[in-house]
Design goal:
four-stranded parallel β-sheet, 15 helices, single chain, six-stranded mixed β-sheet, alpha/beta
Length: 428
């Protein structure tokens, strides 16, 4: 271990690398991750210490790879953990919670967490330019935080990204490069660019540091449940990193004696049109078969997930499972979540809710268990998928009589459908 309490280590052979901007082991070509000196950290942390700090992800700083001189400027993280009784009643879970990163600062997705940690290290490594390949939310977050922290930013995206996510990147002054290809092709290009330019690519050469930011979702769930772990967590999967890092967070809290040991089941959620991880789990395979994405859930459209192997391992070792849902189910479950709990999620959240409904129907999640659904992005970014779902109301004159006529018409319509069974598509 270096003089700090963390350093890079190979996930397979264990070779250590100190701290530097790299993500691959030069001996066995396996991915690197951050490892910590837990004996040293155990003496420094307590529930009371974390609770005494400001409500943001930096309250867990001892368990994040942060340079000694780092001083945060944004209160990212510590998003609400909402009880969801109406949604729970609709889908059959009595003790249901939503981890709502649709309201994370500064750009309304969980990517704000990982970017915050990545840029802390970009500064320490001396980069003046940061970059990323992205399916949308990461683009927004890198652009926004680069602007605030004074970095130049280059953002590489597939050309078919949702217009709101493209605009939500351009507005921060980043250099946006649209690529005629899918995310996997964009990501391969970024790996080549990273070899040629001394830039901090948050999900290439800074990836081990970046990924650790996802752990704060797990830390917050445990703290917000009163320092206890749930029975189940349902997590949307693109590259597969988030589900592995929530598991790492729970494992660290147990190892440090901050929560009681508990077997938590991890469930992965994907769109059927891009489901390499859930397909592998359902086929009892340890290997990922890459797919060509075709889904409206573009934030999850990664056909060859970098952490797919480790996501499969986290899911199956926990006794969990993985499912996927059609595009029609994604839309229906976005609407279900909004109408039942007042939470407007992007497509990934529709995937998560739809997957949870399937898991309940399969008796993989039981009604009385404590279950957390991870909502990772805001619906205002993907309003295009709801185009045509709602009629444009005909305006009425500003007269009470006209309103009363409209009201009676609405009440008659509601009465005529009162006995109808809700038609939310659920596929086997």
């Amino acid at each position: 271990m270096s003089t700090s309490t963390y350093e890079l280590a190979c996930r397979e052979c264990g070779k250590t690398f100190g701290n530097q901007p790299r993500s691959i082991c030069d001996d066995c070509f396996s991915p690197l991750e951050i490892t910590y000196d837990y004996d040293a950290i155990r003496k420094l942390v307590s529930r009371q210490l974390f609770a005494s700090r400001a409500p943001n992800l930096w309250r867990y700083r001892e368990l994040l790879p942060l340079p000694a001189a780092f001083r945060p400027s944004l209160p990212t993280g510590f998003t609400p953990l909402l009880q969801a009784p109406q949604l729970g009643e609709r889908i059959g879970i009595r003790n249901l919670y939503l981890k709502n990163d649709a309201v994370c600062l500064p750009t309304l997705s969980f990517k704000d967490r990982v970017v915050a940690v990545a840029l802390a290290n970009a500064r320490a490594f001396g980069f003046d330019t940061v970059a990323c390949s992205s399916t949308g939310n990461l683009a927004n977050s890198v652009a926004a935080q680069a602007a605030r922290e004074g970095f130049k930013a280059w953002i590489f995206i597939p050309s078919d990204l949702e217009p709101a996510k493209v605009l939500g990147t351009q507005v921060f002054g980043a250099n946006v490069v649209r690529i005629s290809g899918n995310y996997d092709q964009v990501n391969r290009l970024c790996s080549q660019i990273a070899d040629e330019h001394r830039w901090g690519f948050v999900n290439v050469n800074l990836r081990p540091y970046y990924a650790e930011g996802s752990k704060t979702v797990g830390f917050e769930i445990a703290e917000q449940l009163g320092w206890r772990l749930p029975d189940n967590v349902v997590v949307p999967m693109a590259g597969g990193s988030l589900i592995t890092k929530i598991k790492k967070a729970f494992d660290e809290l147990i190892q440090l004696g901050l929560v009681e040991p508990k077997d938590v089941k991890f469930f992965g959620a994907q769109a059927t049109g891009c489901s390499p991880i859930s397909t592998a789990v359902k086929q009892y395979s340890k290997d990922i078969e890459p797919q060509r994405p075709s889904t409206i859930a573009r934030s999850l459209a990664i056909g060859n997930p970098a952490d797919g192997h480790y996501a499969i391992k986290a899911i199956t070792a926990s006794g969990g499972w993985s499912e996927d849902v059609s595009d029609a189910e994604v839309i229906a479950n976005i609407q279900l979540l909004a109408e039942s709990e007042g939470v407007f999620t992007e497509t990934a959240g529709g995937v998560t809710v739809g997957t949870a409904r399937k898991l309940v129907r399969q008796d993989r999640i039981l009604s009385d268990e404590t279950t957390v659904l991870c909502i990772t992005g805001n619906g205002l970014k993907t309003t295009d998928v709801l185009a045509g779902q709602y009629e444009t109301e005909t305006p009425i004159a500003p007269k009470l009589r006209e309103f009363e006529v409209l009201l009676q018409s609405k009440l008659n319509t509601i009465a005529s459908f009162a006995d109808a069974t809700p038609s939310i598509p659920v596929e086997a």
